[in-house]
Structures are given as C-alpha cells and as structure tokens.
Amino acid sequence: MNLRSTDASTQVAAVIVASVFTIFAGVSVTLVVGLAAGPAVLNALVLGAVGAVARTFRSPGEEVTPPRPWWRLTGRAATGYVWAAVFLTHSASLGIMAAHTDQPASYAVTAVLYAALAALFLHSSIRLSRPATTPVAAGF
C-alpha cells in the first residue's frame, strides 16, 4: 500500500500535528534525560518528518503511484524554494543563537542540519525548474 496525500487540508493538518509532536517530544526528552539529548531527538524527529512528508505528499495532478526520484522533495519548484527559504532562515537564526550562548554546540549542529535541508530543497527546486528535455547527469 502506497500512502499518499493530495488533499491540502490533510497535508496542513499533518504538518501541524508533526510540529506539535516534535516540539513536545524534544522538550520532554530534554526535561527527562537532559539538555544534550533534547536537541538530538528533536533533530532526528525533524529529519524523519521531512522525509515522510517528501515521500507521501503529492501536488494536485502529480502521479501518486510511482515513487518520487530521491532528489524530488516537492511537487512544484515554487514549493521547494519556499521550504528552502524557511529552512535557511531557521538555520541563520540558530547560527546567531549559537554565537550568543554558553553551549553553542547543539545550536550549531542544528543550524547545519537546517542548512542541509535548505540545500536539498533548493536542489530539488532547481531540478524541477529545468525543462523536461534537458539531459541530467546520472544521479544529479
């Protein structure tokens, strides 16, 4: 069974639920285990949520049966550019926070993670923006 979602309201609800759960889990782990474990769990959950969303959400009119290529994270290039901007902004804010705290490691690691997600969404959008007839090197 291929789990796919093309309904915008379902997709928004899933993102909200995943965000609330991720924040709750990160704060809970921080309170129970300690300050070092919370950001690690939060980062793992964010990566899992982004991966799940990229594999299951489909744009209206997009094929739902075949799996997406590994590089394709969104249905349209514009959506990927928006997510790249969101993740890049978040990365920059975490980088600023890392520079102004006594324990910069968790902020810096998370900033790098969000910068990497921004790069992946940017890569996806650039590839989606290319004309269909443009030959693409194998794997990239």
Task: Describe this protein's structure.
The model has no long low-confidence stretch (mean pLDDT about 90). Helices cover about 65% and strands about 0% of the residues. It starts with 7 loop residues before the first helix and ends in an 11-residue tail after the last helix. With about 140 residues, the chain is mostly helical. Helix 1 (about 10-30) packs antiparallel against helix 2 (about 35-55) and helix 3 (about 75-100) packs antiparallel against helix 4. The chain is globular and about 50 Å long.
How much beta, percentage-wise? under 5%
Largest sheet: none
Overall mean pLDDT score? 88
Distinct helical segment count: 4
- In angstroms, what is the radius of gyration? 17 Å
Overall, the morphology is: globular
Question: How many strands appear in the DSSP assignment?
Answer: 0
**Terminal Cα separation, in Å?**
28 Å
Which oligomeric form is depicted? single chain
Indicate the low-confidence ranges by residue numbers.
none
